[in-house]
Amino acid sequence: MENKSIKYNFFMNFILTVSSILFPLITFPYVSRVLLVEGNGIVAFSASITTYFSMFASLGIPTYGIRACAKVRDDKSKLSTVVQELFIINIITTFIVSIAFVLSIYLVPKFNLQKELFLINGITLILNALGVNWLYSALEQYKYITIRSLIFKIISILLMFLFVKNTNDYVIYGAILVFASAGSNILNFINLRKFVSFKKTEKYDFSQHIKPILIFFGTSAAISVYTNLDVAMLGFIKSDIEVGYYNVGIKVKTVFISLVTSLGTVLLPRLSYYIENNKIQEFKKMIVKAINFVLVVSTPIVLYFVVYAKQSVLLLSGPAYMGSIIPMQFLMPTVLLIGLSNITGIQVLVPLNKEKELLISIIFGAAIDFVLNLYFINLWGASGAAASTLIAELVVLLVQCIYLRKYLHQVLGQISFIKIAFANIISLAVISPFRYAVTFSKGIFIELLLTATIFFLSYGIVLVLTKETFVVENILPFIKKRKDKLFK
Fold it and tell me: Which of residues 415, 445, 461 is at a domain's end?
């Protein structure tokens, strides 16, 4: 099977990431004003609870499946057997969890209050099992993944503007979100025969998958604890209004995490392939490139949106969401931390078959997040949940760095820490007069547009002048190539 280059895969995944950024930018300001704080909180709470059931239904297959399939992708017979084994396991667990999900809706009073919304969200359990997204990632089918997702996102935007008209339409909004995120999995199942055979050619060996699947499941469970537990605990301990405040910060954070981890998404199958074929130098070079990418992209995003959190919240959601400002400021640094831990954890520990170490790091973060939430949520509500998440993400990264200290020692000298830090400092200095000495009479949008343009342009110029490695080796050649094509 022909494999595209990492640059091509990254480009396609980058388009997908940009669409993931544009989708909430287009929809969330509208939905925030139509559904208001409580309506948004109800939808977010239902989605977060469903995520837990989805985690149990898929076990650790979404991550393990990528690695397992990537290792045998050159042999269609072996690949088909692995896919069949994992698919059967996933269908069985999905069936069991779906029964538990339906029972919980009728047995838990808070779930039963929004029975219709929960049942709609539950459709994702079945669609995720049918989608086998892990196979398409393992085969690096990023063009297909991108086009498929774009089509469903565009349709979802149209549906939202057509059918979400007032505060009572939050159930419809929840259904549209399910369609946008999981509806395309039906196409995945239809196209599956193009890549694998459904005929049984070898004896099934389910036992070989059980241990790593359970380890990855433990990792997924721990990750879900400190990524979704905040919303669930806010809903139970405080109110849907606090969830609504917190959800604004989560939406913004999620958008930028998608951008920062976009390169890492395409690296896992390739890095697993390198390790399987003992290409250690290529493995290390790719890790250096990934870390530089995360630092270059995430650090200016974190700084800018911490400084301009108030204006961002007002633009996205309106004055009713002023309680979202501090939670957003706490959450923004997690964009950097998650970007780095995505590399050290998923992109390094997993290909090295160190999923146990990954699990331990996540458990540390999850435990700390849970304990801090019990105290901070009662004390500060949404801001407390955000602070707990920030500390948890830092702990996860530190534990992973301890496990990988030998590998990191070999590559840290090639990371452009000083140049990137210098570029950020200069950019902050450049926009300071606009923050403290300039009054924007034409509104928040103009203020954000102008200051963001100046900030990120200054940042890029400094990186070019200091000849930062990632920019010089990847961005400038790409721009030059497109320029040469344009003026031919």
Answer: 415
